[in-house]
Amino acid sequence: MPLVTTPNFGEPGKQYFRAFSPGDDFYEALIEMHRDLDDERSALANARLVLLLANHIGNLAVLREAIAKARAGL
Amino acid sequence: MLKTYIYPRYAYRRPPGFGANAPVRHPVVVVGAGPVGLSAAIDLAQRGVAVVLLDDDDTVSIGSRGVCYAKRTLEILDRLGVGDRCVAKGVSWNVGRTFFRTEEVFRFELLPEAGHKRPGMINLQQYYLEQYLVERAQALGAIDLRWRNKVVGVQPREDAVALTVDTPDGTYTLDADWLIAADGARSPVRRMLGLDVEGRVFTDRFLIADVVMKADFPAERWFWFDPPFHPNQSVLLHKQADNVWRIDFQLGWQADPEEEKKPERVIPRIRAMLGGEREFELEWVSVYTFQCRRMQRFRHGRVLFVGDSAHQVSPFGARGANSGIQDADNLAWKLKLVLDGRAPDRLLDTYSDERVAAADENLLNSTRSTDFITPKNRASHTFRNAVLGLARDHAFARALVNSGRLSVPAILTNSPLNTPDADTFAGPLVPGAPLEDAPLARAGRAEWLLDALRTQRHDDFAALVYADDAARVDAALLEAIARIEVNGVRVAPHVIARTPGGAVAGHAPLHDVEALFARRYDARDGTVYLVRPDQHVAARWRAPDVGRLRAALARATCND
């Protein structure tokens, strides 16, 4: 299964009336995670989040593809 | 200073009843002749209510201010009689381009979805909208427009609201059964009543400029994140009528608003953006900050707050004027029923319930846009730039780029006026949703769904009865629907058929020529929608039943 790079956010069973809503819901939660954290702890929270999500995905082929795309151009 | 527009001056006249012994009493007084107050006054006047409209000034909005008017607003303006003028004068735009630093990240086509009378969005300077609304209000006999009438006192009583009004002739008083406060973000009415409005002030400043350009420049929306000509800030460019371009520069909180407004500061900024050789003239400049906040409720006894007086959003997404006009649209039919004694006054509490929910949706979306465009800490800045960096190659990241979620109407899913679905339906036309337009035909002549509903009496609800073949619709059923009456409120039946022809006793059916009604409403033979006077869905069923229609009508008017 290749890495999904098309919009893919949503919550099962929930009806979204606007296409942008689930992505914006996620983005708000992501930014909210950093509230009141200093830069060092912010970076740590991001690292923890990546690790948790990576384990959830599990499939190393998918993770390698994501790693390559994240690194591209930097 | 303005080169493309001459401001009308509306004459002050000594108010009727000035100097009388007792204050004259009026059913409805509206304070504020901006787009929202004018919309409310016109809607009420079209329903046969005499309205006094007070405004402390004698002209329209100075500068472009509200620029973008969305499809739902245009549909409301159609019902108010100014839709055609606005669309004819306004600029429709289809292409949006997003830039990050020196590169274009992506472009989107805002091609209006086919099968709607009105486009997704037009750009039009606010002064044109106000002028058209004023001219419409003047043409309607029922509106007493009083310029240079400034409300300086508000005294709520059990049976009326007493107003003290300042004019060039001096002060007079009048009583209103109902007062609509459309007097803007700083609402003197709200202040005089000592009412609060709560929320967030954003610590940022924006410079907005109206610029006339002689050279052709495409009718596109351009949005820059961190451009080289204005580092670390955002810039938005929009085309308006008369070759006037609206430019919004984010300035940052440290900027000095008086300094920034000076032409010697503004012109170099614009020159850096447009390139040195392009000719332009500066028409209007302003600096603003904004707030995201609302009143806890929009009804306080006999005073009803609409538009900016009740709620304020950031400008990203054009949700200010658009939502205010929807407030007026929600309020007018309810107030008319209450004035007539055809609904109890608690129907007006649902104005507050429904529009508070809409305001919360607008606040949520405009706050999110603001947080994306002007990140407040390092982490959100990093994520913002990461999203922009991925957007060129990855569709998911493009969907996350938030340069304003453009105004769409609220779906009033939790309204107490809705009758919840008992049958199964797919799609977005749930109870509480505003109608979606659809191209239909009557006797072979093209007719839009939303226009077709305007042929009924103003305060009627509509029953949309869908059938495969209009000839097989039970005439007795349509008669029974037309006879439904709840405390004087009635229902006008409309037959919409999959196939052409087939007149049914006294009703010329509407043919669903492109089958878009069936698709958008998930309609099958026998499907019925009950529609409110503001064209929101009240209820729907798979099979018509007069008893259930009557019960849903009672619920939608608080007559249950």
Brief write-up:
The complex is a heterodimer of chains A (74) and B (560). Chain A is an all-alpha fold.
Major protein interface: A-B, 24 and 26 residues
By DSSP (H or I, 4+ residues per run), the number of helices of chain A equals 3
Oligomer designation: heterodimer
Q: What's the pLDDT, averaged over the residues of chain B?
A: 93
**CATH homologous superfamily designation of one domain in chain B:** FAD/NAD(P)-binding domain
Model description:
- The complex is a heterodimer of chains A (74) and B (560).
- Chain A is mostly helical and 74 residues long.
- Chain A contains three helices and no strands.
- Chain A has helices at residues 21-33, 39-57, 60-71.
- With 560 residues, chain B is of the alpha+beta class.
- Chain B contains 15 helices and 29 strands.
- In chain B, helix 2 packs across helix 3 and helix 8 packs antiparallel against helix 9.
- The mean pLDDT of chain B is 93.
Descriptive keywords:
heterodimer, A: 74 residues, mainly alpha, 0% strand, B: 560 residues, alpha+beta, FAD/NAD(P)-binding domain, Glutaredoxin, eight-stranded mixed sheet, 15 helices
Helices, strands, pairings?
The complex is a heterodimer of chains A (74) and B (560).
Chain A: H1 21-33, H2 39-57, H3 60-71
Chain B: E1 24-31, H1 35-46, E2 51-54, E3 68-70, H2 71-80, H3 83-89, E4 91-92, E5 95-100, E6 103-109, E7 121-123, H4 126-139, E8 143-146, E9 150-156, E10 161-167, E11 170-181, H5 188-192, E12 198-201, E13 206-213, E14 220-225, E15 234-239, E16 244-250, H6 257-260, H7 263-274, E17 280-288, E18 291-294, E19 299-300, E20 303-305, E21 311-312, H8 321-339, H9 347-373, H10 378-391, H11 395-400, E22 439-442, E23 445-448, H12 449-453, E24 461-467, H13 475-483, E25 485-486, E26 489-497, E27 510-511, H14 516-520, E28 528-531, E29 537-541, H15 546-556
Parallel strand pairs in B: 1-2, 1-11, 2-8, 5-14, 11-20, 24-26, 26-27
Antiparallel strand pairs in B: 3-7, 4-7, 5-6, 9-10, 10-11, 12-18, 13-16, 13-17, 14-15, 15-16, 18-21, 19-20, 22-23, 22-27, 24-28, 25-26, 28-29
